[in-house]
Amino acid sequence: MGLLQRKVTPDFAGLRKVIRREGTPGRVFFMEFYQDEEIKVAVEQRFSLAVAPSGADGPRRLRREIAIQSFLGYDMIQVTEVLPAFNLAIASEEARTAVSSDPVASGPIQTWQDFEKYPWPQVSKIDTGPLEWLEKNLSENMRCYSSVPVGYYKMLLGFESMCYLIYDQPDLVAAVLTRVREIFVDYCRLLGQFRCVAAMWGADDMGFKTQTFLPPEFLRKNVLPVHRACADAAHAAGKFYFLHSCGNLREIMPDIIHDVKIDAKHSFEDAILPIEEAKRLYGHEVALLGGLDVDFLCRADERGIRQRVRSILDACHSGGGYCLGSGNSVAKYVPLENYLIMLDEGRNYGMS
Asked: Which of 152, 159, 34 is nearest to 84 (CA)?
């Protein structure tokens, strides 16, 4: 029996129950933050999923996304066409010299003058055509989600620059976070108007292997309120708010769960917090997404991947609140065969 021979039909109603932790589902549900384009092309070629060119029947990228994700067994697709457009190019002389020319180190906003001149995106000007098309054409058993990249504040300021500005110009940092919050709350409200949208997926890496990037108190005071406001907007519209955040967040997880009130947490790495341990610690309060360590997914053989998937599902599947997937994303360097083995083992789990 070849890979992915057991069919999986999209079932968003079932996925909703999983996220809400409403009992053990009859099959394994899957979730990925995203797959790199190279992976999608490889899937198309391997399984002959070619989609006709653009025409009167709608946007090719969205039709292609629906075809790929439904074939792979996912119940949602990601919509990228409607994201607010932030210009992250380094613009000012201060930005070029504050730390370095590396955009990770420094960003376009280093001074109040930069802040005032920055071309902040306007949600009211977003073309909602892609969502309008999905509203009419996405099947009843599928939904879509959009990333809500709150973590842009780190790129607007530049991470190294921000570490200085937090102490040298805290009012400027606060102003940037306030503007980011306003934009993304408006964005979540816009998304909430569309029935086809099921979730807003907050994106903000807040930690590394041993701790948070910034002091927990700073995050509680300045960053988590941005996510809370976005989650409130999502929930007011009857949508989920997921959080993708890499790193060791143990110190702020109670805040993320009880204050921000996320519906699901994503991004897990075995060296930081294996998904089984996350399930033990947090699975009674929040859904958990992914967890098959990306390094392991890249390096392991078929037997190892199948054993690891079964081990994860044995620990996490019961009671709902868990979707199988990679620990982060399916990057272009992940061997396609290994990715498909993960999905195949999930499809066959618990089946006679």
From this structure: 152
What predicted TM-score, i.e. pTM, was given to this entire model?
Answer: 0.94
Q: Which domains does the chain have, with CATH numbers?
A: 12-86+121-348 (3.20.20.210)
CA pair distance 326, 297, nearest whole angstrom: 8
Please give the C-alpha separations between residue 90 and each of 107, 165, 168, 251, in angstroms, as whole numbers. Answer: 5, 16, 20, 33
One-letter amino acid at 122 equals Q
- Its sign, for the CA torsion 256, 198, 50, 341, is positive
Over the chain, what is the mean pLDDT? 94
Report residue 91's pLDDT band, with 50, 70 and 90 as the boundaries: low
Q: Which residue has the tokens 């958990």?
A: 288
